[in-house]
Amino acid sequence: MDQDSARQVTILKVVLLVVIVGGWELSARFGLIPVFWTSSPSLIAVAFWESLKENEITYHTYITMQEALAGLAAGAVVGVMLGLVLGVSRVLGAALEPFVIAMNSLPRVALAPLIVMFVGIGFASKFLLAFSLVVVPIMLNTYEGIKAADPQLINMMRVIHAKRYQVFYKVLLPNCVPWIFSALRVSISFAIIGAIVGEFISARAGIGYMIDSAAGAFDTTGMIMPLIVLMVLAFSIDRAFVATSNRLLRWRDEALS
Amino acid sequence: MDRQKRQLQILDHVDLTLKEAEFVSVVGPSGCGKSTLLNFIAGLTPVQSGAVEVFGAPPGGTEAPLGYVFQQHALLPWRNVLQNTVISLEVKGIAKAEREQRAREMLTVMGLDGFEDHFPREISGGMRQRVSLARTLVDDPRLILMDEPFGALDAQTKLLIQEMFLKYWEENRKSVLFITHDLAEAVALADRVLVMSSRPGRILAEYEVGIPRPRTLDQVRHMPRFTELHDAIWEDLRGEALKAMQGRA
């Protein structure tokens, strides 16, 4: 994209943001939409400020992010390791593949009640739910990354008498890094979904808990405000992740956007 | 998952001995098993029947210093030019300072000074193939297997790289087994040209080139001996190429 169209895109992004937020606010002010059902940006901003002063939103956000990021980290480590084992051991990989795919097609949020029953309503249930959403896609992508290694590169390594572990470290592992990164990216929102759903089932803190309590009081502003905080947060994490990944994977043909 | 791979006879009574420091080209119609021949020698494909010996040892052994230049460059995309060039030395456990110095020297021979830090995607196809050559030659192999190494390049780039490789070879004299479908290339570079039949591949004919060295590609192309060989080999190949083409159609 050349500089001119890049600037046009930036301008258009700002215009869209202003139109959406401004349109929402104005319609609420002029009574075109009922504030009771849809709240308004100014109400949300005020609620956010109040909540910030009482350290409420920060606390609940912290709880939810802790659950989500812990689940993401554990899911990534376990997923990558399982994926590598499956990818390196052909027999094991082929044998376990159908089970993994079956697991993956299971709607894992439906596991939530079961998980809560097993480990209770504390941190563990949200962590496990986030973990269960993250681990399978990361494992599958790592496995694919190994399978997708160019056989020509393996042949090249065999001609120079590379040992098996050298082929693994110098070809297979670097080859799955982009695959792992793209799985990690989608996993950020999976992990947050896991934590929130866990909190909906039952919790004493977290964004999900905030939304659930506000819903009980028919407080739309109280429901939307934490959602927007979460959205901004998840968006920032995604941007930071994409920037890091593009820096690290400079050798790739196409960058993420 | 290729359990039911068909058993195909790819090569048929191919008897070939390479002399030390000899440059042998093999030409043949596409799909005649030329690449399979190289894979046998490199130890990448196990031999079903018959015998292959590389410097008196079975193929794939660590004793035989052997280089293989693939048709596609086979560079590691996440390594820059220098890191790609050192890979064989790295695998052998040669110290970093030494392997990088040797790689830099070889990159200079290939005219790649200043590109050490570039990733493969950042350089042209011709440069990639030169990195691939440098990577093979830096290990100082006694035998170099080359599978249509210049086949994917445009005509001008191809000429330049051929010149470069010819010069390197005439100064260093390794044994080379060079697979190509380009008759002019086969004759201009080699000491001996083998002509293979369509599948199952047999050696149809063998020509001593007998053009004195050092050669330059421009001169070679205008020699009567070159034209004579080119025509003779084309005569041999014509029928086979037709057969191979009909086999596909």
UniProtKB/TrEMBL annotation, chain B:
* Sorted UniProt keywords: ATP-binding, Nucleotide-binding, Transport
Question: What SUPFAM superfamilies does the annotation carry?
Answer: P-loop containing nucleoside triphosphate hydrolases
Annotated ABC transporter domain ranges read 1-223
User: Does the keyword field hold Nucleotide-binding?
Assistant: yes
Query: Record's Pfam families?
Result: ABC_tran
As one GO molecular function, the record gives: ATP binding
Q: Which Gene3D superfamilies match?
A: P-loop containing nucleotide triphosphate hydrolases
Transmembrane helix as UniProt keyword: no
**Sequence similarity:** Belongs to the ABC transporter superfamily.
Q: Please report the name of this protein according to its UniProt entry.
A: ABC transporter ATP-binding protein
Q: Which organism is it from?
A: Xanthobacter tagetidis
Upper lineage: Bacteria, Pseudomonadati, Pseudomonadota, Alphaproteobacteria, Hyphomicrobiales
